[in-house]
Specification:
Layout: E1 5-6, E2 8-11, H1 24-28, E3 31-32, E4 35-39, E5 42-47, E6 50-55, E7 61-65, E8 75-80, E9 85-89, E10 96-101, H2 127-134, H3 141-147, H4 156-166, H5 179-199, E11 240-244, E12 247-251
Antiparallel strand pairs: 1-3, 2-8, 4-5, 5-6, 6-10, 7-9, 8-9, 11-12
Helix pairs in contact: 2-5, 4-5
Amino acid sequence: MPGRILTRLLIHEPRMRWPIPADLADKVRGRVVLECARRGKYLLIHFENGVQIVHLGMSGSLRRVPLGEPRRKHDHVEWLFDDARFLLHDPRRFGAVLWHDTADGPIARHPLLSSLGVEPLDPEFTSALLHAGLKGRTQSIKSALLAGQIVVGVGNIYASEALFRAGINPKAAAGSLSAARCERLAQSVRQTLREALESGGSTLRDYVDASGEPGAYFTLHAAVYDREHQPCKTCGTPIQRIVQGQRATYYCPRCQRR
């Protein structure tokens, strides 16, 4: 998209998690896409007059398709360029397409972005920052990672895997972690995410990349996630499954003692 003129934005279904602004198509028609960026799970399409904020929800996808390919059911929004076409597909309509006007200030001030933690692969994500952010928190360390207020991008699968690598029980109180344990955890988070990126991402069922290909590769090598009752790859102890905040957590009770 960057450097191209958006000829038309077609909104087939405005009823998403939040209603798509009725005047959004007019705001971006004929505008040049300056940059495509990301903050947490929000995709940011920059124009001179503002930024489109796109979220894929739980099972959405944004894919590039041939100009003449028929629109599928649940393809709710189209970005049309002279030589390219992108479709937002979201069966559950949990995603979003919103607008932040340039007159409203930097995009980082938008209410959906202003409270997000640092990016996990950014140099700002250090063990000291993690330790300071966890101080005084009584919630479990797994829940603290998923909350996104200290660090973003550590989803459910990666949180279980990073905690296993760091030897930290997911039920441990976040504020109880020492500086040394935070150092191990920060390193494990970075290592887990880098390996997932290199192997094509993770998915349970419906994740696809920009060309429509699934990304189930990292889960094939998971140490604990979705391996309940299977032997730990390190010590042989059966992996246990618990539910924390309505999300499944997998861990080794021996390798991850409190």
